[in-house]
Amino acid sequence: MLTPQNLPLRAAKFTFLLSPPHLLQLKLWNKYRVSNIPSLIFIDASTGKVVCRNGLLVIRDDPEGLEFPWGPKPFSEVVAGPLLRNNGQTLDSNALEGSHVGVYFSAHWCPPCRSLTRVLVESYRKIKEAGQKFEILFVSADRSEDSFKQYFSEMPWVAVPYADEARRSRLNRLYGIQGIPTLIVLDSKGDVITRQGRVEVLNDIECREFPWHPKPVLELTDSNAVQLNEGPCLVLFVDSEDDGESEAAKQLIQPIAEKIIAKYKAKEEEAPLLFFVAGEDDMTDSLRDYTNLPEAAPLLTILDMSARAKYVMDVEEITPEIVEAFVSDFLADKLKPEPI
């Protein structure tokens, strides 16, 4: 078995993150987007870059450390092998080459998965009818082959065979899957376009924005509010449901969001903040109530749900300079949090 005592010496380059967070450890949770425990993340300590997000699957699948150092592999290599259609037909994974691919982690026992699948079937049909080269790969988390077969019978796309548990596990490891349903959208080269395929499909029923390249600033909705749990989020609350007000707010913070995203992308790291504009609706009212925010608008906030902390700037006018200073102070740990 793989233990700290018999790890290869090269393992000294790794940092191991485990157990619930306290104080400064919350920053590590946010940095590495940990949403479940226990979690084990392998990091190259010399660069700080993530080697593998699903360390628990690694030590389960490779207890002798034969695949050490468990770095990421290309999608084409991980997925290599036969795939299934629900009529029993098989095809080789190289049939995916040259297409956008949605890697769909889902299971029949999961009600949100079944709801998403119904929407995704229609999205898949619309995208194919529009002449786009697109395929979906179902990676099952079902608890039996019978459940897999029943669920897969509803799907018009391809799947990794249920019996190929090793390949299903490797795909989970590749994308650091922490919950289902998850839809990862890849470009034709196998690189990730978005990990938020679920949100994109639900927000873009007509698939007009396929393949859903990420936007720097999102308008907060019922379907994307789940992203508030993924780490610190800047949320600018505005005082009107009018589209013009929301659009002006997005234009105000977009250059700052783009600057932050580009800075961290250059370091091959995820941005430390997500950016939202929130109008006036029942969901926004619920968020204000839950986080005990004042009714003022415009209201500039950073919400960190995992740390149960908020940072609030209540001023009469929000300018780009105010937003940029607020973000800079947050990233430099100069702001004092208030409890949620």
Automatic annotation (TrEMBL):
Its EC number is 1.8.1.8. GO terms for molecular function: thioredoxin-disulfide reductase (NADPH) activity. It comes from the Eukaryota. Gene3D superfamilies: Glutaredoxin. Residues 69-207 form the Thioredoxin domain. Belongs to the nucleoredoxin family. It catalyses: [protein]-dithiol + NAD(+) = [protein]-disulfide + NADH + H(+); [protein]-dithiol + NADP(+) = [protein]-disulfide + NADPH + H(+). This is Nucleoredoxin. One of its GO terms (cellular component) is nucleus. PROSITE patterns: THIOREDOXIN_2.
